[in-house]
Design goal:
The protein is mostly beta strands and 766 residues long. 3% of the residues lie in helices and 45% in strands. It is built from 1 helix and 53 strands. The model is unreliable at 1-26, 576-587 and 592-597 (pLDDT under 50).
Length: 766
């Protein structure tokens, strides 16, 4: 009897165990890998465009310049950048507001014929008067912003704010038809409703039609429209909609129609062409007002808004921050939410916008201040990425990426740090034996006491398991500031400690306000005899930072630490750059390139080497001839580039076109001295527009206000910090943090012909 009871109990127990195991295992699920871009914000790019103002907008002009407009300076002001936002001209007023009629919310567009329009919103202030109405106007330039015509009338609403019109935004159709979208209360003088209206122009903005209604939710307020044309041929307009059932406050929403329809019907409350933008249901609970919409070079879409996302849930509008998310090519399913400025709760970023410029970056603009002060308009740049990559190459492992050729310029493939406020850059390389990783973390409060040390988590999924828990082929490394490596491997839904890390080479250089790291991880340690170039892989990075006794982690948007399906795709680039087959001379001398570096090997002494750069012209016609100084060009001839070369192209038909070739050397310091210490330039073989000077000065030196002495190679070289020219022994700088010098080298007697370069000086006390 007892025996039977024991058997019965054991049977039930085994069933229970099996049930528990089955219940446990269902949590480990292979999922489709994450797709879509994520934005990585470069904290060093943040700067102020307008010292005061609101509602800033940006476009890139056809001549390459970036143009910004804002309500600032007593009207609508503009400024320009010719270097993708590194520096800007001083703001200039293009239209001054009238008495008791402030001008607000400018929007920019350059038409295909080069015409530039700056729309704005006259907003009469109290006391109201019938002769001062809320309206939409535009200024027009036909000479790239040198001169402006206007204001040109587009629309007028009523003269009180309850029945006004708001926030113009432009769109040019492929046909040349021009749209101006705006929020309109004029149709609802007896209620608190608002719709989105649109006026058309068929003469490049000179005259405009009466408005047509494109979207309206009865009893609600559609507002702040911004349109784009998607890659799939739809007009998508992002708006704020405060009428969604189950939600209070505004939600970023798109309304849309096919280009062929061109708003033949109004998008109502229940239309399938009206959608909250977020892919994740959980994100819909947060308020998202004042949205903006643009398109990435990939065709994906990107949206911004002001709201109470994340830790800001429940705060009032005066504490809203700016947020950005990436959507698909249909302007739907927005995810990977990030905060470009990531402000403290005491600050806000309002009336934001975004732009995509020619270098592929995203520029975010915000009116940043606090509830008790005015706003300054600031920008920051971000870089959309769908994957990380590693080129083939072998760095020198000395704890610094400087002097090596990594996959990206200056080893800056990855930008992080806008959460921890510790700028972090990172990059990858690989060869047949190792996977290499490097990072620099700017941190003025480095913890090295072996209790929750600062450092970086590097996670790998080499088999593309794309699971929700750690599995075979997944690894995690923690790289701390003391030079210690902790390695874990995945198996059966858990991380397990690895004790075979002796073949890993890991070097850290810790300075007073930053630390550099380099690591070489053997492929054998990861289960491969050589680099698994053919594998689909995923990678994740996480920064750990101690601050005020607490531990904070910064993650890549939309990633989960244990769930590799959410990590970044990782690629080992299959082709080496340069010469694939080594060049040889009877096997005594071998010359080859490896990731941009020329390598020469010989088993005998080499008395000397001459390296020549070939001149080549790419011309769209085989019959066209090239002449230099009236002699036909030869690829084997040598030319003195110190002189101006007169180049002439002559077509088969006999027509000629002349050019002049000017050669300008990148500027750099000839000498640089600080506190009696001579600096030495470190160059990159890969990019001679970028240099570094790393200096060590006596301990206790005050670095906050020093005037270095320096010499330059040419009288035509000028050196600046921001836009302030630097004078040797006179101009001071704060060397408690790295100082960026901008060189502008010009051709003699031709100040318009220039070459720009950068020198970063880092000073460390002994």
């Amino acid at each position: 009897m007892n025996k039977k009871m024991n058997v019965h109990i054991n049977f039930k127990t085994s069933i229970l165990i099996m049930f528990l195991l089955a219940a446990y295992n269902i949590y480990a699920v292979s999922k489709d890998p994450y797709s879509g871009s994520r934005i990585f914000w470069d904290t060093d790019s943040e700067l102020t465009l307008f010292p005061s103002g609101n509602y800033a907008r940006i476009i890139q002009l056809q001549d390459g310049r970036i143009m910004a407009a804002a309500e600032s300076g007593g009207g609508i002001s503009v400024c320009y950048s010719s270097n993708y936002g590194k520096t800007w001209t001083s703001p200039e007023l293009i239209v001054r507001q009238q008495s008791l009629i402030p001008y607000a919310v400018p929007d920019l567009i350059q038409l295909t014929d080069g015409t530039i329009l700056v729309g704005f919103n006259p907003r009469p202030s109290s006391p109201y008067s019938e002769n001062r109405k809320f309206g939409i106007r535009t200024m027009i330039s036909h000479d790239n912003g040198k001169n402006w015509e206007g204001p040109i009338f587009i629309f007028d609403a009523q003269y009180i704010s309850d029945n006004g019109c708001w926030e113009p935004s432009f769109l040019e159709l492929p046909s040349g038809e021009l749209h101006c979208y705006f929020a309109n209360e004029n149709d609802f003088t007896l209620s608190n409703e608002q719709c989105i209206s649109m006026c058309r122009s068929f003469d490049k903005g000179k005259t405009w039609s009466d408005p047509v209604r494109i979207s309206f939710r009865p009893g609600s307020r559609d507002g702040m429209p911004v349109p784009i044309i998607t890659d799939n041929g739809e007009i998508a307009v992002i708006i704020e909609d405060n009428g969604w059932p189950g939600y209070s406050g505004f939600r970023a929403t798109t309304v849309r129609c096919p280009l062929s329809d061109n708003w033949n019907s109004v998008i109502g409350a229940d239309s399938p062409n009206r959608n909250i933008i977020f892919a994740n249901t959980n994100d819909k609970k947060y308020k998202s007002a004042a949205p903006y919409l643009r398109k990435l070079q990939s065709g994906e879409t990107i949206a911004s808004w002001q709201g109470d996302y994340g830790d800001r849930k429940g705060v009032g509008e005066s504490q809203y921050d700016m947020f950005v998310a990436v959507g698909d090519k249909d302007a739907k399913n927005f995810k990977a939410i990030s905060a470009p400025f990531n402000l403290s709760l005491s600050q806000h970023s309002l009336w934001n916008s975004i732009a995509v410029v020619g270098d592929g970056s995203v520029i975010a603009l915000g009116s940043i201040g606090d509830p008790n002060t005015g706003n300054a308009i600031k920008m920051i740049k971000g870089y959309p990425k769908t994957y990380f990559e590693a080129d083939f190459g072998t760095p020198v492992l000395d704890g610094s990426a400087s002097g090596d050729t990594w996959t990206y310029k200056n080893a800056q493939q990855v930008f992080m740090g806008n959460v921890t406020k510790n700028k972090t850059t990172a990059d990858f390389l690989y060869d047949n034996k190792y996977l290499y990783f490097t990072a620099r973390v700017i941190d003025r409060d480095i913890y090295t006491d072996k209790v929750d040390n600062d450092g970086i988590f590097l996670s790998l999924d080499l088999e593309n398991a794309c699971d929700t828990y750690p599995q075979k082929g997944m690894f995690q490394f923690f790289l701390d500031v003391n030079g210690n490596v902790t390695m874990k491997y995945g198996d059966n839904n858990n991380w397990h400690d690895a004790d075979n890390t002796e073949d890993i080479t890991y070097i850290v250089n810790t300075k007073s306000f930053y630390y550099d790291m380099e690591i070489a991880i053997p492929w054998k340690l990861l289960g491969y005899e050589t680099a698994p170039v053919q594998n689909q892989m995923r990678v994740n990075l996480e920064i750990r930072n101690r601050k005020d006794g607490a531990v904070e982690k910064e993650i890549i948007p939309e990633t989960l630490a244990k769930q590799s399906w959410s990590w970044m795709e990782f690629r080992l680039n299959k082709t080496e750059s340069g010469i694939q087959t080594p060049l040889s001379d009877n096997q005594n001398i071998i010359a080859y390139t490896e990731h941009g570096t020329l390598n020469i090997k010989s088993n005998t002494d080499i008395s000397g080497i001459s390296v020549y750069a070939s001149n080549k012209f790419y011309i769209g016609s085989d019959s066209t001839k090239v002449y230099i100084d009236d002699k036909e060009f030869s690829s084997t001839a040598k030319y003195n580039l110190a002189n101006v070369l007169n180049i002439k192209l002559k077509s088969h038909e006999g027509t000629e076109r002349p050019y002049k070739l000017y050669t300008v050397n990148y500027g750099e310091f000839k000498t640089f001295e600080l506190l009696g210490v001579q600096g030495t330039i470190t160059r990159s073989e890969f990019d001679y527009s970028y240099y570094e000077i790393n200096m060590t000065v006596p301990s206790g030196s005050d670095l906050s206000n020093l005037a270095p002495t320096f010499t330059l190679y040419s009288d035509n070289d000028k050196v600046y910090i921001d836009d302030v020219e630097q004078i040797s022994g006179t101009t001071t700088a704060d060397f408690t943090k790295p100082v960026t010098y901008r060189f502008v080298a010009s051709y003699p007697n031709r100040p318009d012909i220039t070459a720009e370069s950068t020198v970063i000086v880092t000073v460390t006390p002994q």
